[in-house]
Amino acid sequence: MISWVTEKPTDNTKKTTWTALLPELPFELLFTAFFKEAEVDPKEIAKKTGKTAKLYFSTVKEEEKPYNLWRHFDKELAKDMSLYITGQMYAREKIPHQTRQLVTVAALTVLSKPDELKLHTHAALNVGCTKEEIAEVIFQTSIYGGVPAANTALTVLKEVLEERGEE
Q1: What is the Cα–Cα distance from 49 to 84, expressed in whole angstroms?
Q2: 3-state secondary structure of 152
Q3: CB-count exposure of residue 63 (10 Å: 0-12, 13-18, 19+)
Q4: Which of 51, 78, 141, 143 has the fewest CB atoms within 10 Å, counting from its CB?
Q5: How far apart are alpha carbons 120 and 117 in whole angstroms?
Q6: Which residues does residue 16 pair with via DSSP β-bridges, in sequence order?
Q7: What's the predicted TM-score (pTM) here?
Q8: pLDDT per residue over 101-158, tens digit each?
Q9: Which of 105, 93, 110 is nearest to 145 (CA)?
């Protein structure tokens, strides 16, 4: 569902904005609208994407990176998704990378998404989070997502630490 909303700011001018239920929008439309509205330099976004991807996912096996899965099915969409997710969202500087990754670990734990959690557990460790901080976030989420989800997440954390030789 897409609708137009006319707002009247305090300076008495009219401003028309889009409101949408994002899951119903095709990703390509959302991506194009985002870049057009933001007026960003595509080269700068590509640079941020590479830098952030290296920072977060350098310790993740190539076959486990979602980008490679996306590319298998649609190379252009994979590029667009990577530019938006890694170059725009993950590269934002409103909160530190450590905080961003701990929030991501919490969300993925509650949602019980172990494959994505594995990626972001690597990312959290890569940006300087400690295994104790990650475990504490997982324990905290057990209140909201349940003990089984927390147990799954702790298993993922243990596996990642073993892969990295840090357990």
Answers
A1: 8
A2: helix
A3: exposed
A4: 143
A5: 5
A6: 6
A7: 0.72
A8: 999 999 999 999 999 999 999 999 999 999 999 999 999 999 999 999 999 999 999 9
A9: 110
Instruction: Place domain 96-167 in its CATH homologous superfamily.
Output: AhpD-like (1.20.1290.10)
Say which residues have a Cβ less than 8 Å from residue 119's Cβ, sequence separation at least 6: 57, 60, 64, 65, 66
Distance CA 133, CA 110 (A): 16
Residues 6+ apart with CB under 8 A from 110: 141, 144, 145, 149
16: phi > 0 → left, psi -120 to 50 → alpha, else beta; which?
A: beta
Q: Is 5 helix (H, G, I), strand (E, B) or coil?
A: strand
* Distance between start and end Cα atoms, the chain: 48
Q: Which two tokens stand for residue 29?
A: 């439309």
**Could you give the residue range(s) of every CATH 1.20.1290.10 domain in the chain?**
96-167
Could you read off the pLDDT of 58-97 as tens digits, one per residue? 999 999 999 999 999 999 999 999 999 998 898 889 999 9
Q: How far is CA 12 from CA 8, 46, 65, in A?
A: 6, 39, 49
Q: Are 127 and 117 in contact, with CB atoms under 8 Å apart?
A: no
- DSSP state for residue 22 in the 8-state scheme: G
